Amino acid sequence: MFxxxxxxxxxxxxxxxxxxxxxxxxxVEFHVDAGTSAIVAVxxxxxxxxxxxxxxxxxxxxxxEFADGRIPVIAGTGANATHExxxxxxxxxxxxxxxxxxxxxxxNKPTQEGMYQHFVEIAKVSAVPxxxxxxxxxxxxxxxxxxxxxxxxxxxxxxxxxxxxxLSRVEIHRKLCGDDFVLLxxxxxxxxxxxxxxxxxxxxxxxxxxAKDMADMFRLADEGNYAEAxxxxxxxxxxxxGLFVESSPIPVKWAAQQLHLIENSALRLPMTPLxxxxxxxxxxxxxxxxxx
Length: 292
Fold this sequence. Notes:
By secondary structure, the chain is α/β, with parallel strands linked by helices.
């Protein structure tokens, strides 16, 4: 379930700043048709920080409804306040999700012990498997491998999304956490190398646009056919990098509108539209990828 090419799904808005549920439904169909392994609903790329609690729960529920059992849905449930992350887990326990993705507490910079205790409290209430999410570039805090190893001993903490881009950690996490613990990359540019080193897949921004290519690439990697996987990866490398030319999901939403995957590339403040310079970068990456 937690392997292969998993999409960190964008949350489309309309011109009135409301969630565009028709476009959301279309996105789910796009990923079912493309062979995407699973959907992460309302993670960082889904603008979880700017949705209300009610919107957050409703969007996850709608994605589960639209998926209709054809593709697993993983809910973003992270927060920097432990009680809030616990609340999200409780609210979504019976929503039909296959698991949850919970980011390290951002901004308040807890110690390693604080992060450990944070996830212990979430694990106590979660009825679904938990994927830890370490992305120090956005949270300001790095969960050390030793802390991940401690948490991996808890039965319903089953995986890590590692967005550090530090490939040396794959071997370290594998040794510390054991063969049954799932390791997922959160960095598209190094995702294939991550899998070569022993990871099971990627939670991807690029997948929002190049879903079939990403599914094919990680299927080939799973089969050990790295040469063909590398051909796809090289073609997509411009997207892997270009989609972060400005803070995500600014570039990927603009690109999704260009590809007619969503009606509107609207974002909620403090996110602002992609600059002209950013558009040039993303346009070049789309041309290189050959997906339009």
